[in-house]
Write a structure and sequence with these properties.
Layout lengths: L10 E2 L32 E2 L6 E8 L5 E2 L4 E8 L7 E4 L2 E3 L2 E2 L6 E7 L8 E2 L2 E4 L22 E2 L11 E4 L14 E4 L15
């Protein structure tokens, strides 16, 4: 048995067996491919490189930039080599990750923005606890390469101060007759889509 301590490089390890004699002193041949003599001998690949996540993105099935209620968020993960299925947290909530076509390099996760589970503010995603086949542990990733900047917003917009109904009647804003133009000014507590307004 011979031992060898791996250093920091990547390559296929090839080893030779030479300079040996039998009990009668006969010198044996140099063996450069032990696997051809014994199927239990394998030429091993030394891997000391840390795996990296080359692409991590997030997308949503609804409005751009914001998620709320039961909106669906999908996270895609790609690594530069085969790795174990990573763990994933979205705003401290654990989310199940699955491998795409069992490739070991492409993964996806889907979660619903259930009310009460996700605090308002930036959608924080952390990918962690993964390693390659050699056991090299990859670094945690929180900076996404696409779809960054999603914001969780579960606050319902409210009718704001300053909303009013006015007219162009010469007697004053509080009067109206046939032909008078009524102007509705609607203010909300935050930016919204354009509302529909009806007047009776």
């Amino acid at each position: 048995i011979a031992n060898y301590t791996v250093t920091s490089f990547d390559q296929f390890i090839n080893f030779n067996i030479f300079d040996y004699n039998n009990t009668l002193g006969t010198k044996g041949p140099v063996i450069t491919e032990p696997s051809s003599y014994n199927t239990n001998c394998m030429i091993t690949y030394i891997d000391t490189r840390v795996p990296k996540l080359t692409a991590c993105g997030v997308s949503t099935n609804v409005r751009k930039g914001y998620v709320n209620g039961n909106d669906i968020v999908t996270i895609s993960i790609t690594s530069d080599e085969v790795i174990t299925i990573p763990n994933l947290k979205v705003n401290t909530q654990n989310v199940v990750v699955t491998a795409v076509n069992n490739s070991g390099m492409h993964f996806t996760a889907t979660t619903s923005m259930n009310w009460g589970l996700f605090q308002n503010g930036n959608l924080n995603i952390v990918i962690f606890d993964y390693s390659d086949l050699a056991g090299n542990v990859g670094a945690s990733v929180s900076q996404l390469t696409s779809g960054c900047g999603l914001i969780v917003d579960t606050i319902v917009p409210t009718f704001g101060i300053g909303s009013c109904l006015t007219s162009n009647h010469p007697a004053g804003l509080s009067y109206a007759k046939e032909g008078t133009t009524l102007v509705a000014t609607v203010r909300f507590s935050e930016n919204t889509t354009t509302p529909n307004v009806t007047m009776l």
